[in-house]
Design brief:
37% helix; globular; Maf protein; single chain; 7 strands; 186 residues
Amino acid sequence: MDRIILASASPRRKQLLEWAEIPFDVVPSDYEELIPDGMSISEIPVFLASQKAAMVRKQTAGNKIILAADTIVALDQQVLGKPQDRADAIRMLSLLSGNTHHVITGVAITNNKKEILFAETTRVRFHRLCLAEIEHYVDNYRPYDKAGAYAIQEWIGVTGIHSIDGDFYNVMGLPVSRVIQELKSF
């Protein structure tokens, strides 16, 4: 496989591509995540991924394949983005405690001739967490760069998640298996 460009600074996406042995270079997108009014929750991550890919495509010479992704956490009809601070992280995790939410990752794979857009959804159910557990996680893992204020591969995922239905790696930020299948067809 030719080298692709990962339009993301996410260390988790980088790690997942390394595990999959996909050769890539990192060119982070500095797209400001502006969402048009009236967009449905399921459309948001695909829209953001396509905007990130388009921005990097403009900066890239040649016809390289660009991979961009965006992950959101949705509880009922509320999007839980990256927490602004400790209090916001505690608020988000308190909302997720004892509930089932959806992690939706939008993916864009593009070059100068073709674009593939898709979303992968994983259902995640948390055990009921007490405030001390939530505070422990926030204070020790500082999940301020993570949608929904958590990372499934960290302590809270090991101790606090009851079950998942769908792609585990999607919750980490990239549905790698599907990405590989789409890259093969690209």
